Amino acid sequence: MAKNLPVADVVEEIFQSILATPKRQRRLKSSTFWKRFGFGRRTKERVEQVREALQTRAVIMNIDDSNFGAEAKDEWIVLTYVEPELSQVATQAEPAIEDVPRPPDSWFATIEKGIYESEREVEYYFIAPLLEQLGYVEDDFAIGYPVQMYEGVKRVNKEADFVLFDGAGRAKGDALLIVEAKKAGRDLTEDSVGQARAYAMWLTTPYYIVTNGDDIRVYLFRGAVQPDALLMNFKREELRHNWGTLHKNLNKSAAIEYKDRLRRILAAGGM
Questions:
Q1: pLDDT reading at 119 higher than 80
Q2: Which pTM does this prediction carry?
Q3: Same domain, 214 and 242
Q4: β-pairing, 175-181 with 207-211?
Q5: What SS3 state is found at 185?
Q6: Which among 81, 106, 123 is the end of a domain?
Q7: What is the pLDDT of residues 71-115, one digit of tens each?
Q8: Among 83, 182, 218, 270, which has the minimal tally of Cβ within 10 Å of its Cβ?
């Protein structure tokens, strides 16, 4: 491939390939992604040009801003197109990653060395402490929350592992986050993700998390029709590195703000 291809042209080609996929999402190895641009070196200026070009096309990534361009060659870059209204919801008023509150190193060390032998241990020793560090308090937690929904024409009662609300009220309009826990060592399947998404759809929560205590996946809910965006996909031992992006999106204040905007967008669309 020729060197130093126009960034806008390469991003446009990537963008069109994203639009051609059912989920409006593509996964590229870092080495493959950067090879498309023909850069001899990834200078700060070139990386910033690529980032800005992707942003103009409302394409979001799973890579921290601070790490974009410096990721390992075999790391997956997940590129997702988010409709303009929802991309604005997801990016407005976000603090710089270096400005977000961070737990002490001792907290990360405790989380990293934990060994979980059951789903309950994942919930108690990993999920609950994580949510507390994201700014949620006891009144916000609903554990084993009953959700009435439909499977086809049949009305069924389900139970979400964690639903985080804005305060002690349990009104649907106050639901902010779904967390679906799986047993330690159990693979996260499409069924696991679909279950969490179903809860998010019925409660219109801005985000949902699926985790087995080792793998953490964070999704942006985009409505009943649009495919959701996989914002983050990382291992527990990488939590320290990914904390900035995680907190930036899922802290309680950010979730409340996005919830309000999401509600208005879905109402405008008749959902």
A1: yes
A2: 0.65
A3: yes
A4: parallel
A5: coil
A6: 81
A7: 889 999 989 887 655 444 444 444 455 678 899 999 999 999 999
A8: 270
